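Proteins fold. Shown next:

***
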Amino acid sequence: MTNADSLISMEKVTMQPSGLLSEKLNLSGMRCAACVQLIEFRVRQLPGITQFIIHPASHRADISWDDSLISLKHIIAAISALGYGALPAGQSPDEIEQKENKRTIWRLFVAGFAMMQVMMYAFPAYLVPIPQLDGDLTPDLDKLLKLASMIITVPVIGFSATPFFASAWRDLKNRHIGMDVPVSLGILLTFLASVWATFHGGAVYFDSAIMFVFLLLGARYIESRVQKRTTAALRLLTQLSPATAQRFAAYPSLQATETVDVAALQANDFLLVAAGEHIPADGIVVEGDSTCDESLMTGESLPVKKSAGSQLLAGSVNLHGALVMQATQVGGATQLSALIAMMESAAQEKPALVLLADKHASRFLIVILVLSFFSGLVWWQVDASRALWIAISIIVVTCPCALSLATPGVMSAVTGILAKNGVLLAKPKAIQAMADATHVVFDKTGTLTAGKLQVSHMLTEVAQLQDMAIAFALACKSAHPVARAIADFLAQKELVKINAELQQVHELPGAGVEAVVDGRIYRLGNLAFAQELHGLHQAIPSEITGQSISVLASSDGNVLWFALDDVLRDDAIATISRLKSAGKQILLLSGDRRDVVNRVAQECGIEMAHGGLSPAGKYQIVQTLQQQGATVVMVGDGMNDGPVLALADVSVAMGQGAPISQSRSDILLMSNRLLDLDFGMTLAGKAYTLIRENLAWAVLYNLIAIPAAMAGWLEPWHAALGMSLSSLIVVLNALRLYRVPQPLHLMQDMA
């Protein structure tokens, strides 16, 4: 809980000259989806709120509002009035959480100490029936023990159980029935009925009330610790961006730097990053030599060397020497911000099976309250002395928490574990689809191969510097690995300036680049693409057969031949082997020549390989597989993989791939390690199994526990124990994901 008035002096908001403001808030006190729904519903009703979205995995919220209608102070006050804490994103909620943890531990201690004492007092009553005058326990002593139990129970009700009462009161005020409503009802009814029995005779259940509070507090404390562990990777990512940066007032004069807020940075600013500091924006090294730790963004465990011209990622750590950098992307446009947004979206969304469970969990509470009421009425006719206790047992024993918790813990854990290993989950539906996958389809260049192509030969009948200059200019217009390799190769040549600028430049996915130079059409791309231009069928020179070929062609014929070499990724063969061992069908689809594709397929042990495919050809093959009932995982890198990635049940883009392939993908393989993909599929299968196990356990438990409570077979303390353990089992089951072998171990085994 936080005092809104004390926060205003520390506000840091992104603001425009007037009108619309935006900010990120750190929230505390949320425990489930119902909390998220309640906060979002109430805040969106405030005047002037234009956007409010909560990301449950990171406990952060994006908010935009009209400053002329409402202030941040009133927004935070409104959230605090609901019983939750809110802080501007620049302020960490750690201090608040630490205080809350201390209070939780004290509540647990009071409830645990009281439970031991009260159960000691209740023990004689369980051994000797009351009233039985000839027993060892006299009525006076029995009443004295009951009074002592009642007195000891008061601090538990007044202190340890207050979080449940506060949450229930908040829900009722907001016309919402959450899990704490029946919990509070069960605690209060048990206590008040036992107080009545203490003075008017009858059985008391102070021990059951205290045990219920103690077990529920313990279960929720463990749940919170588990949740922090499962969301650790996402929370850590959200804290990577520094609050301030050192900006040069003028560069390259190297005048003194000024300390500015990161939100004030702009593209092309020159920044100084000292050793040990976080990189504040995406950019390029201008001066200096150092190494950077990029493990949290890419999964690369080893430091990456940086020198002039090297790319820098916001959030990575500069380990050694000072660097001068030029910012290219700042704020929400950085790769770090994109990764956080992807992970928050993945953690927030839920597969269809989960949505079904959440939908019925809230309705389940109302059904239970109705069942409890009518069961009490029936038992009032059968045995009035047991009616209230049976009604209470029904309320206490039910566990919609298990239904609601069955998935979030697993989804948070799988998202965090994958991110830690450089696999970013953009869409949660991929978990279920990967678990059910039957076929894995790979592209070749940049996917199975390293994508670091090098030109081994350049052949030409008439060597002209002008032709090489045109080839260089066309290659620079594409992000495809082949084009980059040609551009790198020609950059080392002494090229002349092109007589005319490139005109009508366009890239045909899977084929190449075309442009008009001085009235003549030129194409740089594969052989088929070149031959379409001039209509000639020129044979590949014998010197470069068996290699990947790219051609510069004009209307007169092929002008330049480029032979390119590529190598398999270090873990390609091991990954294919592991996927085949898991029962997956492997296909290789590539636009490269058939002889090159067949050679790569043979090296990897892939039986089904198709070369010379256009994007439409890849699309058709995957579509045919799906029509035959296959669930397809497509792994691609280049621009030509965009359509088929959009079609596949699960699309995986390599981290160094073209932006279009990444934007259409369900999973981004930032580490560029194929073994991480195998690990992701293994983890997805395990995660989906755990989700089904949790849902099955929650349903089975309630199907057994509710009829047992209605039949009068359960005492209130039985119900308290069952309810707490049911929720705890579901949460702890998610931790089994951490037993799946990590990719690092697989790499070591392969070595």
